């Protein structure tokens, strides 16, 4: 389980960084300009798309993690569903392979 937890933490940290960076894509005439220290999504097209994508990724990975935890708590260790869920998590981490926190064991 430490591998799954470390991968989950890595993904959450990368997605938090991306969400903070959405402030860079606000349009000049945005009715809700970003405020310092606040992470939110406004109505500008680009930040809204990024936030929607990140919300979908977080939901999918959270479902994968819950599936793995549920199967391990019931005594099943790395069943086909757990392996598939872990592969999905690793696929979501692949775009960040050049990040210093990346581990080679996370290749799908």
TrEMBL record:
<dbReference type="InterPro" id="IPR046193">
    <property type="entry name" value="DUF6221"/>
</dbReference>
<protein>
    <submittedName>
        <fullName>Uncharacterized protein</fullName>
    </submittedName>
</protein>
<dbReference type="Pfam" id="PF19730">
    <property type="entry name" value="DUF6221"/>
</dbReference>
